Backbone:
């Protein structure tokens, strides 16, 4: 059985640690798939660019020494033109190869990001409710957007600049040493200092970026929640309150970002300090050599300085790459976390070819809790038998675990212990797809999607014909009001179905579930916004049209369930009574109380 582990990971200021072992590099590698050629070509062309570029100062030295001379003899125009031409050709070659490399890197990194996003999205789709509960929505959004962008940029950097810098460094060092070995010792002494400085900055900045990302999660959560509940916000005139809240969240991000950047800004001046110290030393000692005419010509000094520039530039680039990798490690770990989250409801023990025989349901000693722990059980020792084709009502106070009970049937959550059986078999024996095809459920918090009514209904079954759609809508008592719209079934629903009434939305959701032609149909408080007469018509239609389908109706109103074959009374996670309306009125105190209180309401 899947282990229970629900833990909110988005607690705000807990110390941030990243376990590098948790980064699934394999997953990231597999995202290159389909873009292998540009991924290889980008560094190849950058190598070509570097090689071409690195010869330029060398040719420059010849141009100065052989063409221009030292100002004492006349310049030799032939030599100037010759070396000038070679330099031009090299520069042009570097330009072309550089541009090609940039192009390939862009193609490769965009493709990489596409694959990664798709992978993450697929992972999220495979999540169970419990998996989703573990991450906040906002955090998932940051992981699929900001984090992926970070990784994409670093990937681009890795296949371009990460190749360019070390090669440039090696070639330039070799060239500089070939010009003057002793002078080269200057930067060999200074370079380690620079590297140490960079590493220190990296170590300090790493956790700060982790914090920053969490703030982003926070902001996305807030934003999303606010947008989804914008009507509630307006109804309660809470705009100012929400604006103030958001201002705080945004200021939080600003603070976190400034804190991280404040450290980062030191890296560049430190590197520059090293660079210029190096330059001054080279010009000082090298200039002396040239003036004394011992061991170095003016052209050589000139190209030596160019090489030093290139060497230090490549070190600076390496520094940037390191900082970037540090930052990206956070993103990589966060996305890995999503990729490696194992869907705790899966087909691992399923019999691939098993079909659901009928709509019978049995609960055997079922215990269930959303979180681990004996005292956190929401359902306690539930035993229940429902025959195929029965119409069953469930009633009980709010929070008595009615929704929890029925959510176990299509395996939206798995039991903590005991077993749920459908069609005589443990539901874990079926493939999830097979099971959920047979069990349709209208959730208490139901949603419609933007698109036409027809598109929404077809969600239940892509291949449903127009006749089937109308038939389902008729049973759900939705056909009449849909037909009254000018565009009928082609009416566009706004996002989340904002332009239909609450009761209409509920009926559309019922129709959507009916189109699946399920063996078990569960309505979780799905007619709460529908008037009593329509409610009764829906049940009558169910009786007539859905013979053989097991129907479970959760309701708050006694009238919604009083004519059911069997009524289940729940209280605080246990089934207290089962029977018909008449039987329960006689025997169940809770049931009688509910009846009386609702009658009083009517009187
Ligand atoms: N996703 C969840 N995570 C943790 N606890 C939950 C979750 N959903 C419900 N609960 C808890 O489980 C208990 C039963 O909730 P449930 O939604 O099953 O009640 P209900 O009978 O359907 O109530 P209502 O009539 O208000 O819909 C409640 O105490 C609730 O706080
Ligand atoms: Mg409920």
Residues:
């Amino acid at each position: 059985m899947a282990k229970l582990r629900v833990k909110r990971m988005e607690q705000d200021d807990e110390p941030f640690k990243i376990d590098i072992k948790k980064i699934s590099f394999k997953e990231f590698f597999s995202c290159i798939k389909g873009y292998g050629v540009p991924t290889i070509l980008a560094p190849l062309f950058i190598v070509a660019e570097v090689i071409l570029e690195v010869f330029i100062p060398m040719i420059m030295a010849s141009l100065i020494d052989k063409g221009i001379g030292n100002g004492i003899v006349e310049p030799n125009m032939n030599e100037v033109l010759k070396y000038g031409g070679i330099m031009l050709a090299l520069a042009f070659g570097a330009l072309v190869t550089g541009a090609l490399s940039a192009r390939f890197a862009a193609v490769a990194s965009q493709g990489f990001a596409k694959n990664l996003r798709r992978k993450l999205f697929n992972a999220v789709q495979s999540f169970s409710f419990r998996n989703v509960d573990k991450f906040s929505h906002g955090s998932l959004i940051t992981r699929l957007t900001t984090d992926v962008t970070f990784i994409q940029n670093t990937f681009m950097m890795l296949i371009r600049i990460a190749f360019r810098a070390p090669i440039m460094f090696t070639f330039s060092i070799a060239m500089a040493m070939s010009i003057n070995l002793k002078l080269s010792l200057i930067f060999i002494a200074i370079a380690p200092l620079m590297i140490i400085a960079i590493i220190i900055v990296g170590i300090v900045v790493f956790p700060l970026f982790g914090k920053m990302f969490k703030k982003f999660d926070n902001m996305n959560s807030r934003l999303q929640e606010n947008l989804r509940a914008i009507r509630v916000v307006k109804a309660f005139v809470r705009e100012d309150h929400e604006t103030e809240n958001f201002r705080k969240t945004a200021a939080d991000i600003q603070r976190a970002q400034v804190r991280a950047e404040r450290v980062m800004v030191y890296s560049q001046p430190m590197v520059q300090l090293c660079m210029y110290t190096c330059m001054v030393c080279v010009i000082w000692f090298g200039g002396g050599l040239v003036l004394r005419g011992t061991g170095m010509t003016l052209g050589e000094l000139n190209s030596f300085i160019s090489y030093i520039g290139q060497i230090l530039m490549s070190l600076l680039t390496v520094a940037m790459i390191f900082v970037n990798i540090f930052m990206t490690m956070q993103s990589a770990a966060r996305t890995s976390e999503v990729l490696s989250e194992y869907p705790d409801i899966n087909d691992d023990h399923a019999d691939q070819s098993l079909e659901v025989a009928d709509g019978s349901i049995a609960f055997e000693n079922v215990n269930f809790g959303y979180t681990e722990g004996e005292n956190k059980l929401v359902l306690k020792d539930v035993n229940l038998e429902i025959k195929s084709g029965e119409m069953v009502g469930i009633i009980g106070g709010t929070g008595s675990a009615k929704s929890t009970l029925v959510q176990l049937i299509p395996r939206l959550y798995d039991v903590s212990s005991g077993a749920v059986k459908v069609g005589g078999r443990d539901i874990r024996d079926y493939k999830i797809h097979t099971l959920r095809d047979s069990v349709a459920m209208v959730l208490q918090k139901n949603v419609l999607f933007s698109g036409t009514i027809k598109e929404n209904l077809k969600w239940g079954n892509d291949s449903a014909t127009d006749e089937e759609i109308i038939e389902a809508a008729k049973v759900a008592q939705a056909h009449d009001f849909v037909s009254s719209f000018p565009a009928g079934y082609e009416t566009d629903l706004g996002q989340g179905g904002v332009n239909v009434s609450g009761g209409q939305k509920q009926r559309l959701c019922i129709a959507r579930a009916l189109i699946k032609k399920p063996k078990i149909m569960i309505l979780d408080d799905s007619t709460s916004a529908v008037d009593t007469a329509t409610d009764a018509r829906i049940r009558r239609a169910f009786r007539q049209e859905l013979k053989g389908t097991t129907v479970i109706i959760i309701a708050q109103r006694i009238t919604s369930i009083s004519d059911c074959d069997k009524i289940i009374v729940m209280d605080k996670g246990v089934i207290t009574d089962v029977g018909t309306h008449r039987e329960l009125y006689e025997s169940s105190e809770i049931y009688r109380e509910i009846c009386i209180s609702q009658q009083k309401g009517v009187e």
